[in-house]
Design goal:
Double Stranded RNA Binding Domain, 5-stranded parallel β-sheet, 29% helix, 151 residues, 20% strand, 2 domains, Rossmann fold, alpha/beta, single chain
Length: 151
């Protein structure tokens, strides 16, 4: 499969994050930075969520929760719940990402780096995110060296 890279304007858009562990927290923080209006649904959350400006529902996520959202992130530790959420989103034409199953996603989140107006995204199409992170870090290092004042 060939993925089509894209940058989205999420300012004011409603996004669902199902799950509240470390992966969900990382995704939620980056969504908030992009201006998304985030709803997090999980029976329990990581304490770090308390400091975030999100709508939190303390329960298990249900397929009906995807209605009205622009994006759906399924990051629970229940495989079946993740699949049901992604399927419900896909039926409604809403892009869905399952944190641990890139082959079932309709979009992927790349390893990203941003410095002022430069935005860099690196992806391996879900095959090996560690390689994408390594490439991103090498690009970041090269750009930071370029920005260093020369004597």
């Amino acid at each position: 499969m060939t993925w089509y890279p894209i940058f989205l304007d999420l300012r004011g858009r409603k996004v669902l994050v199902a799950g509240a562990g470390k992966v969900a927290l990382r995704k939620t923080k980056s969504l908030l930075e992009a201006g998304a209006v985030v709803t997090v649904i999980a029976p329990e959350t990581d304490t770090a969520f308390a400091a975030l400006d999100v709508r939190y529902l303390a329960r298990k996520a249900r397929p009906a929760d995807v209605k009205g959202k622009s994006l759906v992130f399924a990051a629970t530790n229940h495989r079946e719940t993740n699949q049901r959420l992604a399927q419900a989103a896909t039926k409604l034409g809403i892009p869905a990402n399952i944190a641990d199953a890139p082959e079932e996603c309709t979009f992927l989140v790349p390893a990203r780096y941003r410095a002022q107006d430069v935005h860099i995204a690196v992806s391996t199409g879900g095959k090996d995110p560690r390689i994408a992170v390594k490439v991103r870090d090498k690009i970041r290092q090269a750009l930071q060296k370029e920005e260093e004042p020369h004597a």
